[in-house]
Amino acid sequence: MDMIVTFPGGKRVDVGFGDLVIKTDQLKSDGGDGSAPTPFQTFLASLGACAGIFVLGFCESRQIPTAGIRIVQKNTFDPATHKLLDVSLTVEVPPDFPERYHDAVARAADQCAVKRVIANPPNISVRTEVK
User: Fold this and answer.
1) pTM assigned to the model
2) DSSP class of 95
3) Could you tell me the sign of the dihedral formed by the alpha carbons of 61, 109, 72, 24, in that order?
4) What is the Cα–Cα distance from 117 to 124, expressed in whole angstroms?
5) Residues of the chain with pLDDT under 70
6) What pLDDT sits at residue 79?
7) Within 10 A of 105 (CB to CB), how many other CB atoms are there?
8) CA–CA separation, 71 vs 32, rounded Å?
9) Could you tell me the CA-to-CA distances from 5 to 13, 15, 24, 28 in Å, in that order?
10) Among residues 104, 53, 47, which one has the least CA distance to residue 73?
């Protein structure tokens, strides 16, 4: 699937694919309007969202209600370099969530496709082409 990146104005950058568009912006402190998540925030959010899809599928396949379930994602950065050091995902379940599935639902979240790509990164190439 091709994704087309466009520049609608200001510090906004949009990514279109199919009939969908992901809109990004920069924080006001970085010259943007703060109208949308930054590209890096969107990247980080994709980890939690992907884990969430796996948790949702796990629960649906066992007819476990998802009410009261949430994933808390904590991102730790080096204060000097601002480099991302650690991402932790905690699947919080309500008291009535079956105890026998506590470890299994965490393993389901751990199967996230975004996490797997980060663990085994693809080659990324960038070039210029005159159109």
Assistant:
1) 0.90
2) T
3) negative
4) 12
5) none
6) 97
7) 21
8) 29
9) 7, 4, 11, 21
10) 47
